Amino acid sequence: MTKQSLFGRVAQLAKANINAMIDSAEDPQKMMDQMVRDYTDNIAEAEQAVAQTIGNLRMLEDDYREDEQAVNEWGTKALAASNKADEFRAAADTTSAAKFDNLAKVAIQRQMQSESEMKSANPTINSQREIVEKLKTGLNQMKEKRIELVSKRDELVARSKAAHAQNQVNEAVKSVNLLDPTSEISRFEEKIRREEAKVIGASELASSSLDAQFESLEDLGEQTEVEARLAALKANQTGVLES
Q1: pLDDT values of the chain reduced to their tens digit, one per residue, 243 residues
Q2: Angle at Cα 19 formed by Cα 13 and Cα 20, nearest 5°?
Q3: Is the distance from CB of 136 to CB of 50 less than 8 angstroms?
Q4: For residue 142, which phi and psi values (nearest 5 degrees)?
Q5: What is the signed CA dihedral for 175, 177, 180, 182, rounded to 10 degrees?
Q6: How far, in Å, CA of 144 to CA of 195, rounded?
Q7: Model pLDDT, residue 176
Q8: Would you put residue 92 in left (φ > 0), alpha (ψ -120 to 50) or beta?
């Protein structure tokens, strides 16, 4: 397993899920919540894969240590068998010396086999160690991205709610504009103005009627004075004639 194959597959899956949710989204909050859950599941899947890779590496390292221990043990056995062969050879027991020399050779062969296994495992172990470090780094980056995703989710949900609230306000304002109560007030005000005008007209009419009456009284007074003066004039004339 390589870093690219693991995280590439996870990334493609996550991207496909996100694109599908965005295309069919009706409720932004539900979509973002689902996105966070899916990404969390992707991280869990990646964690399992990374854990398996680490486990495989630890098994290789255990085998390497066992081979290393076997090299030392077979080396010790080879040396012990060789020393024993030398002892029998010194005692002129060539048969026993040959037997222990053969045992020493077997031990050396086993030692060489373990060394060969160590040599062949060493590049694999080094490669797996590099992969594990890259996987750990990639996994940490995914976790950081999840934190960013959660933060972005919270921000976008808040913005969506604010936009929805603003839209409701705008719709309410439109309704107020369509059913503007001030227009009814204007009509009522116009009605009152007409009534006021009617009162003013009636007042003016009443004033005009009173003026006419007073003018009639003034004319009557003038006529009365004329009659009085005429009578006085006649009376004076009569008095002159009599005298």
Answers
A1: 444 455 555 555 555 555 555 555 567 778 888 888 988 999 999 999 999 999 999 999 999 999 999 999 999 999 999 999 999 999 999 999 999 999 999 999 999 999 999 999 999 999 999 999 999 999 999 999 999 989 988 888 888 788 888 888 887 777 655 555 555 667 777 788 888 888 887 777 666 665 666 566 666 666 777 777 777 777 777 766 665
A2: 90
A3: yes
A4: -60, -40
A5: 150
A6: 76
A7: 58
A8: left
Q: How many CB atoms lie within 10 A of CB 179?
A: 9
| CA dist., res. 92 & res. 98, Å (int) | 11
Q: What is the pTM of this model?
A: 0.55
d(CA 74, CA 22): 65
Q: Supply the DSSP string of the chain, one letter for each residue.
A: --HHHHHHHHHHHHHHHHHHHHHT-S-HHHHHHHHHHHHHHHHHHHHHHHHHHHHHHHHHHHHHHHHHHHHHHHHHHHHHHHHHHHHHHHTT-HHHHHHHHHHHHHHHHHHHHHHHHHHHHHHHHHHHHHHHHHHHHHHHHHHHHHHHHHHHHHHHHHHHHHHHHHHHHHHHHHHHHHT-HHHHHHHHHHHHHHHHHHHHHHHHHHHHHHHHHHHHHHHHHHHHHHHHHHHHHHHHHHHHHH-
